[in-house]
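Exercise: predict the structure of this protein bound to coenzyme A.
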Amino acid sequence: MPVDLFSDAEDAYKGASSMQEGRIIKTFQANGVDTTFRWPCAADLDAFIEMHRTLTREEVMCRRLELDRDSGRMMFEDIVHDLSQDKLGYILVEQDGRLVGEGFTNSSGYQYFTVGLALIDRARGMGIGTALMWALEEESRRLGARRLFLSVWSANPSAIHVYEKVGYNECGRRSRWVQMDDGSECDMIDMVKLDI
Ligand SMILES: CC(C)(COP(=O)(O)OP(=O)(O)OC[C@H]1O[C@@H](n2cnc3c(N)ncnc32)[C@H](O)[C@@H]1OP(=O)(O)O)[C@@H](O)C(=O)NCCC(=O)NCCS
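Solution:
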């Protein structure tokens, strides 16, 4: 009998009593395209997996998740669970009904949170990353954060620019930490934003 992958995600989702399915955080126009920041809903599972496959195919300079249906469902359920427990802030970016990116802010339990985000290629360069950083900061504050942390490759100047623009400063650097796809190396830069 075939396994209904969605039913597990839906069950996990129903368990998340404090969550409001797909709650809209912000809607705006980015280069004339309707853009929405929102919480996930159970029906997002397939699109969530497809978005991560796209990010991996595009060789983004951050985490790349090789998700199949099982690992994708598990990851999605973990996100939904942690979101419902206020251990995680998680924002999906939707344009014209398609998921084009995500951002997260992960609680340490000690008032500092780790932030990350990624957009698929066609959604970049139109201000969404900057807006998403502000939205993640707001989510972090809601969850009790006082300090924010992130890591970024030195070979990712547009990301570094965005982080500096919204108030992060370099606090450390791991020299030649990352081996990139072409075999060359770059640094891993740690950045913080204090007293948010
Ligand atoms: C990094 C990322 C989130 C930024 O989001 P975005 O929507 O493209 O960013 P924005 O459009 O808000 O801003 C981009 C800024 O970078 C600037 N920029 C673009 N190329 C640049 C470069 N080579 N050097 C410096 N700045 C650059 C733009 O001018 C713009 O700044 P401005 O608004 O002050 O003019 C997005 O590009 C992305 O998802 N990349 C792939 C995944 C990734 O790298 N994630 C971060 C891992 S740490």
